[in-house]
Structure formats: C-alpha cells, structure tokens
Amino acid sequence: MSELIFLEPVLHEKLWGGRRLETDYGYDLPDGPVGECWAISAHPNGDCRVRGGAWDGQHLSDLWRDHRELFGNAEGEVFPLLIKILDAQDDLSIQVHPNDEYAFEHENGSLGKRECWYVLDAREGGDIVVGQRAKNRDEFAQMVDEGRWDELLNRVPIQAGDFFQIDPGTVHAILGGTLVLETQQSSDVTYRVYDFDRRQPDGSLRELHIAQSLDTVDFDVKAPTSGKIEAPEVDGVTHLVETPNYAVDRIRVTTDAPVTYAQDWSFLCVSVAEGAGKVSVGGAEYDLPKGTHFIAPSGCGDLAFTGDMLLIVSHL
Ligand code: ZN
Cβ distance 137 to 202 under 8 Å? Predict the structure, then answer.
C-alpha cells in the first residue's frame, strides 16, 4: 500500500503576476509580482519537493527516476505532466507552443506543450485569447507585420468555471484579472508572438519568436466561442477533456455529497482548487486545505473525499 505524495509548490516571479497566490491560496511568496505556482512538477525549471511521509524532501524527479513503481511503471524519461496555478494580474504575452516533434528537433529534445485551463476566477467582463483568424502562414505573417492584432486574435469572454483545451499550434493568451489552474505537458517552451509592446523594468522589450511561431501555428485549429463546460456532471465528477497526453476531471465534493474516485490509473495528480476537506485512502485520512496538491500513486486504492471543495484531477 502506498501513501499519498504531497508536494511543496515552486513559485515563479513574473512581470504579469500579482499576490493572489498568497492572499487566495496561502503560499509563502517571495517579494514582487508572482505569476506561477508550479504545484506538481518535476521539470528542471521547478522540481517540486515532497512534503512529509516516506519520501520527505525528495524531488519529484528523484521519485520518477528511482521509484517508477509509484507511477505504475509509466514510461518516459521525464515525469510527463506539470500542474500550475497562474495569477495573471496583467496580460500574458500572445504565444503559441510547439508539438512534440518540433520541440524535440528545435528545443534540445524537449517535450512539446499541450495545455488546458480551468478558470478559477475572472474579472467581470474579462476575456481570453484562444485561436486566430489568418488562413495561412503568409496571411499570418502579414497581419503580424502590420500589427492588425484585433483582426488576427480571437477573444473569448470568460468566467469562473470555464474550461479551455489549448492544443499545440493554438495562438493564445491569458489576460489580466484571471486565475487559472493549468494542466500541461512538462515543457517550458513558449514562442512569443506579441507582447503588447510592453517594456521590462530595465526598459527593454521581451524577445519575440516570430519565425518559430510561423512554423508552429496550426491553421486548422477551430477557434472556440466559449469555454462553457458541456460535459455532464455525474456523481460529482465531470470529464473535462481527454487528449493523447492527459485526461482531466473536475470533482465537486459537498457536505451532502461525498465523492469516491477510483484510482484505476498509473497515478493521479490531484489539486484542491476551491474549498477544503479530507481524503481517506488505504486506511489513512489526510486533511486537504485549499491549495493542496498531491499524487495518488499506483495501487493506493480508491480516494474517498469529504468536505466542501472542488478538485482538479489528471492522469495519463
Ligand atoms: Zn501557453
């Protein structure tokens, strides 16, 4: 029987970040604007440590390398998923990510980046950029060159509880006033298309990657008009998405309706996105305050959740 593996988040300062990871999630933040909490990650740019239990203090990458049985002997050189909470006080740059083939060839063997967003909070009347309107590479290059951003970029209104799947090759940006839980491939490769001509504190502009973006944009992606979740909620569980890299569920637990979630997978990544509660598994009970993130290892048994909370769960 294996115990749950709780992880200590890694926090990243970002120009566009704020302080809500402290005020809303209780994380200990360094000074300045903090945009990203890497909550479940074995990526070298933010490799989470285990908090408590048999593996206390070890990095997630160590467990992946030395104790693959915890992950159902899943294959791959690197732990494949990365779970983040993003606090976008200001707009993120307009960007696009490559697929696995392109990243492997052009980014030192890195994984590509498929990602998805569960919207935790959004500003009244807020929106987000998902998709673009150019029909082909030439038209895209021309619109970028002429700065026709309003024409090029597809904006979608958002509210808390929306969900967006962002496949590689999809132009996108999270805009100011948005709090998002992101489930993605473990990759840090981003091609910046446009940064609103913003200057950094030292007066410089951030680098753009127009050539790589032109290589990477998928002109067949259909731009969405809404992030409304269409899938039904059954016994508290909503299947948000299934992709070749991950599947993501939302679990809604209320005091009247506890939820038991079967751990039938190689491993589960679990995040307490809202509220708080408890989980019982394999005869042990754990407290789950808001902002807790853990891995339920292979064969740990079914997870019995009680309390009043919203969980985001992902697996391969
Ligand atoms: Zn992105």
Answer: no
By residue count, the chain amounts to: 316
Please, what are the domains in the chain?
A: 5-216 (2.60.120.10), 233-315 (2.60.120.10)
Q: What is the mean pLDDT of residues 68-85?
A: 96
Tokens of residue 144, six digits: 């970028």
- pLDDT digit string (tens) for 237-282? 999 999 999 999 999 999 999 999 999 999 999 999 999 999 999 9
Enumerate the active-site residues.
192
pLDDT of res. 227: 95
Contact 59, 48 (CB under 8 A): yes
Span from the CA of 24 to the centroid of ligand 1 (angstroms): 22
Taking the centre of ligand 1 as the mean of its atom positions, its distance from the CA of residue 81, in whole angstroms, is 14
List beta partners, residue 75: none
The Å distance, Cα 117 to ligand 1 centre, comes to: 9
CA-CA distance, 214 to 193, in Å (whole number)?
9
Q: Tell me how far the alpha carbon of residue 303 lies from the centroid of ligand 1, in angstroms.
A: 31
- What Cα–Cα distance (Å) separates residue 73 from each residue in 3, 78, 247, 302, 314? 17, 12, 18, 19, 17
pLDDT at 27 over 90: yes
